[in-house]
């Protein structure tokens, strides 16, 4: 399949595919005589794996590690679990921060009486 087909199949931008090739998380595509890239179903599966991992918030270093682990089906999945646990903790931390932000914004809006800016609780809260 060509790069446009791969892009549509995996839901990844063409430039992202090229970037993944440059940094080595996706193998360089074979080239046709006319220079066009050609990708296999294995490439499509690997790209879908990368996209899903990135959607879950894994950074590229973790994606590389997870891809390497995938190449060793008989190895322990302890490293994969450790990486996933660290990502879960990061997500939970972001959720806690977002909940705190929601609470503060709700408080600011609840106290705002939509009067004049000189008496605006939103502006006042942002000023400290």
TrEMBL record:
Lineage summary: Bacteria, Pseudomonadati, Pseudomonadota, Alphaproteobacteria, Hyphomicrobiales
Cited Pfam families: MerR, MerR-DNA-bind
Stretches of the chain forming a coiled coil according to its record: 81-108
UniProt protein name: Helix-turn-helix domain-containing protein
Annotated InterPro entries: DNA-bd_dom_put_sf, MerR-type_HTH_dom, MerR_fam, Tscrpt_reg_MerR_DNA-bd
Ranges of residues in domain HTH merR-type: 1-69
Record organism: Neoaquamicrobium microcysteis
Keywords: Coiled coil, DNA-binding, Transcription, Transcription regulation
GO MF annotation, one: DNA-binding transcription factor activity
